[in-house]
Amino acid sequence: MNEAIRNLEPKALWNQFADLNAVPRPSKKEEKVIAFMKDFGEKLGLEVVIDKVGNVIIKKPATSGMEDRKKIVMQSHLDMVHQKNADTEFDFDTQGIEMYVDGDWVRAKGTTLGADNGLGVATIMAILESTDIPHPALEALFTIDEETGMTGAMGLEGGLLDGEILLNLDTEEDDEIDIGCAGGVDITATREYNEEDVPENAVGYTITVKGLNGGHSGMDINKGLGNANKIMNRLFFDGFENFGLQIAEINGGSLRNAIPRESFAKVIISEIFDEAFQFDIQQLINDIKTEFKTLEPNLDIVVEKSELPSKVMELGVQEGFVRALYTAHNGVYRMSADMDDLVETSNNIAKVTVKDGKIHVGCLTRSSVETSKFDLANSLRSAFELIGCEVTLSGAYPGWTPNVDSPILDVLTDIYEKQNGEKPNVVACHAGLECGLLGTHYPDMDMISFGPTIKGAHSPDERASISSAQKYWKFVLEILKNIPKK
């Protein structure tokens, strides 16, 4: 299956991507891919450094005639987001990604593809292995754990790198050059509650919300896509208000940086309200599906009778929980006043679990403005603290402040215009790039970010454009030739 990928052009890029995607590389479980990269560099006879947190640095001298150019850092992250369709049997800890060609797209069978940021990693690998691509002295920086905390970039020590220019290969539109990004902070609300026995004459139900698009909680947050946790909570609110619905379990969403596509719950209704509940909840489902018919045509909400659970959440805690989740902001909070069409601040209610007397809600708040980021974080914190939750803010990382006077920006915009007959879009993005953190360790480094077109990142619909990869590869090679002199 992956042989079709190896025959795509440019073969140097796609073959490295196929090799990389054969290696399991979950965030926070990068041992196998770190060993893979170490072996890759050493087999090429290059200097390989693994720092104290697991980042891999491979150094390659300049090719002949390029010794007078500034040393560069080419950087991408090794880990990938793990999402799969509910009916896909796949073990991300042990299996390599199964890819196939679909027209102009490379896709994976029922899982995320790992093009974010595997195509960037593969690009750098191809340059390291090449014998005929002109380039200045370079340091390849492969960071770990970008997707779930940026702990690799956070833990990188100053002094390990000598490069004056950093090329980050982690954006997803080939006509864009990024010069700034949002920072983020994880918000976690937890509390314990007493479980109550299921009352007599109760009826058990399973509720399933599925079929949503999901997507990247930064890049896709402005699209108005459905959030499975918020949709599920609307059902809880209506069922509780009108029929005394009680919650036994919830399992909604997974990763903080992925818009939740699915949520599953077990609930009970008193037998005397059963018929009315079924009628009312179906009306609500129809209303929700009508609201989302354009953006989420495959949304499916199923309410079906099931075995009675043994315990349910105590009613007092449940009422507060459902109202707090309804209050908690999800989606765009504020648009940028300085850059057109840029989301400044947002939140993703990413994961909600209720089981065995414990509540857990996980959010990711992003913003390009630090004060606005913590304004929204405190709003969420307040909503959950009012119902007795312990709320922690963790994993905060800074944004990357745009520098419109960047010298490397001038180089890239000039090359792009010559190759494509039009100017690139110079933007800041609402995703979390590692440049902000790397800049804290190397404040004098001139940084830029670009990449090939990737759609549906952080979801099983992730796909990489073949024609865009060809355009991007040509762009990379020309950039390497035109790095300024020292």
What secondary-structure arrangement, pairings included, does this model have?
Elements: H1 3-6, H2 11-21, H3 31-43, E1 47-50, E2 56-60, E3 72-77, E4 99-102, E5 105-108, H4 115-129, E6 138-143, H5 151-155, E7 165-168, E8 176-181, E9 183-192, E10 195-197, E11 202-210, H6 228-243, E12 246-252, E13 263-270, H7 274-291, E14 300-306, E15 311-313, H8 315-327, E16 331-335, E17 343-355, E18 358-367, H9 370-385, E19 390-397, H10 407-420, E20 425-429, H11 435-441, E21 446-449, E22 454-455, E23 463-465, H12 466-481
Helix pairs in contact: 2-4, 6-7, 6-8
Keywords: Hydrolase
Protein name: Aminoacyl-histidine dipeptidase
Domain Peptidase M20 dimerisation: 208-291
Architecture of the largest domain, according to CATH?
3-Layer(aba) Sandwich
Residue stretches low in confidence (pLDDT < 50, at least 5 long) are: none
- Please report which band the strand proportion falls in: under 5%, 5-15%, 15-25%, 25-35%, 35-45% or over 45%: 25-35%
Percent helix, as a range, is 25-40%
Question: Explain this structure to me?
Answer:
This protein is of the alpha+beta class and 486 residues long. It has two domains: 3-182 and 399-481, 3-Layer(aba) Sandwich (Aminopeptidase); 197-396, Alpha-Beta Plaits (2-Layer Sandwich). Helix content is 30%, strand content 28%. The protein contains twelve helices and 23 strands. The chain has helices spanning 3-6, 11-21, 31-43, 115-129, 151-155, 228-243, 274-291, 315-327, 370-385, 407-420, 435-441, 466-481, and strands at 47-50, 56-60, 72-77, 99-102, 105-108, 138-143, 165-168, 176-181, 183-192, 195-197, 202-210, 246-252, 263-270, 300-306, 311-313, 331-335, 343-355, 358-367, 390-397, 425-429, 446-449, 454-455, 463-465. Strands 9, 11, 12, 13, 14, 16, 17, 18 and 19 form a nine-stranded antiparallel β-sheet that branches. A six-stranded mixed β-sheet has the order 1-2-6-3-7-21, covered by helices on one side. A four-stranded antiparallel β-sheet has the order 4-5-23-22. A hairpin with a 7-residue loop joins strand 16 (331-335) and strand 17 (343-355). Helix 2 (11-21) packs across helix 4, helix 6 packs antiparallel against helix 7 and helix 6 packs across helix 8 (315-327). The radius of gyration is 24 Å and the shape is elongated. The two termini are 46 Å apart. The model has no long low-confidence stretch (mean pLDDT 96).
